[in-house]
């Protein structure tokens, strides 16, 4: 497994974007969480890919918890680990997923793609929606995902499509070279790698080798 220290989107974004979406903090972070929670159509098309998420799912960069709530509602058997490095996002996710936290199905914790504080082989599915381009080290993130996945477990990654209806999403789209780099990195250590060009997103699905 290569842990190449590469990022799909090099450089630092402007501070308002950083504080609202990349490392949400303060008032801008709270506003960013509200905006992210409204992208339900994009969340929905990714959730539709998860027809059989298994018993345990980890979402990296869970943001305000909109996807976590959607999956908890759709899959009553599913236990979810929602991970985000931002206290602002974890607070919003806790509010949105309060009922499932109370019944023990949703757990929310600190962490990053390259530091997932979960045991080895503890997840059937790992999901990351609109966060992979923010990882500072793509290889390290994929290595951690491989570690926490059970044999033949699934990983689903997605990012904004350059053909999305929203002009904001189109502006956030990655260049072809970055999309190809992610596909190649997945092929290095996973199998059944498939790229899907959806309406709002580009998504990748793959499985951990046994």
Task: Characterize the structure shown.
This protein has 210 residues and is an alpha/beta fold. It has a single domain (40-208), classed as 3-Layer(aba) Sandwich (Rossmann fold), CATH 3.40.50. Helices cover 40% and strands 23% of the residues. It is built from 9 helices and 7 strands, in the order αααβαβααββαβααββ. The chain has helices at residues 15-22, 26-37, 40-47, 66-74, 87-96, 98-102, 138-148, 167-172, 176-189, and strands spanning 56-60, 79-83, 106-109, 123-129, 149-160, 190-197, 201-208. Strands 3-2-1-4-5-7-6 form a 7-stranded mixed β-sheet. Strand 1, helix 4 (66-74) and strand 2 form a beta-alpha-beta unit. Helix 3 (40-47) packs across helix 4 (66-74). The longest helix is centred in the C-terminal third of the chain and has 14 residues, at 176-189. Mean pLDDT is 86; it is low at 1-5, 10-22 and 25-34.
